Amino acid sequence: MKTPSSVPRRGVLLGGTAAAVSGILAVGSRPAMAASPKKQGSPASAKMKFGQDGKFKIVQFNDTQDGPRTDRRTLELMDAVLDSEKPGFVVINGDVINGSPANATEVKQAINNVVMPMESRKIPWALTFGNHDEDSLSKGTKMSEAKILDFIRGYDHNVNTKEDSTFGSSNSQLLIASSRSSKPAFGVWLLDSGRYAPETIGGQDFEGLKSYDWIRPEQIDWYRETSRATEVRHGKVQSLMFFHIPLWEHHHMWYGSQFSSNDADHAKAVKKHGIVGVKNEDVYVGAFNSGLFTALQERGDVRGAYCGHDHINTFMGDYYGIELGYGPGTGFGTYGLGGAEEHSLRGARVFELDEKQEGVYTGTRVLFAKDYGIDMDPQDQPIAEPLPLPQR
Description:
Blueprint: H1 10-14, H2 17-28, E1 46-49, E2 55-61, H3 72-85, E3 89-93, H4 104-119, E4 125-128, H5 145-152, E5 172-177, E6 184-190, E7 200-201, E8 204-205, H6 217-234, E9 239-242, H7 248-255, H8 263-273, H9 292-299, E10 302-307, E11 316-319, E12 322-326, E13 347-354, E14 361-368
Parallel strand pairs: 1-5, 2-3, 3-4, 6-9, 9-10, 10-12
Antiparallel strand pairs: 2-13, 5-6, 7-8, 11-12, 13-14
């Protein structure tokens, strides 16, 4: 396991949370403890379908995180993965763009660059929001997550559901119909894991804690109620869940312990939880434990919960019957391992489904840009011009 002495860009962000984040919070975030009326969940209708062979693939891209002139290799990697895997669905799991856009058009260009690989192939796709997708608000772009959601829902092959009063802007249930009927054979849950913790709660700051946001109780209520309603209508539909910021349990799984973080504990955890992949930086969790994992245990319909956020972590394992894991960072325009190895972990994660198999979900694997022969030079390689925006 390699642990870099410093991680570019993230270290700058976390070095002074109140100073760095306060301006963004003022214009971009919802109130930290905001509540909305609890709604009775109802199941989604299936917008995707298993192939005639009963199989289906999901691709997870993560942290494409760039501006209107996306690094060309990010797009080359996405193109290569889509052409080799031919998935039925793609999720960009948060931090789709960075804070460099100077106006609303540049925000749309940055997003358009990384969704066109799916749009041009007519592949259904969706995104979750990460902690950086609203960073350009501080420059006056006025492109909040809600406005970004409105924009992306205008694409022909986007399957994000419209915003409701539940906290966050990318909470969605997506169902995949059986090849033999309209009955859902598998599902996908998307959650908005928020951005940053507020400066204070109850007069106390967050010094000494990870300073990120967390999945809120009302989101967990929405998942629980929608899951129950889906079971009533269709039976229990096995699913995968995607959100950007990892859970505390991602950390606990790696170390096999809640209150220690040492290599001896990790060695035991590898055997206990079947951990594969690498951890090259901290697990940057939300400031509070959301409680989502216990809700997943209660409902028993989520086979795996996958995040991004920590670009150079790729590990996954079985934590008490639920897979917890990372998709590797996809974007070449943001931090990596550093030095000559800067881009060596750029990649994507693939999930295999087969409705003829018990449980439907049959496994996951990671694909890396270096294995596609993509240039690994640490120097940035932005495209000459943003891809053309769709005519509407």
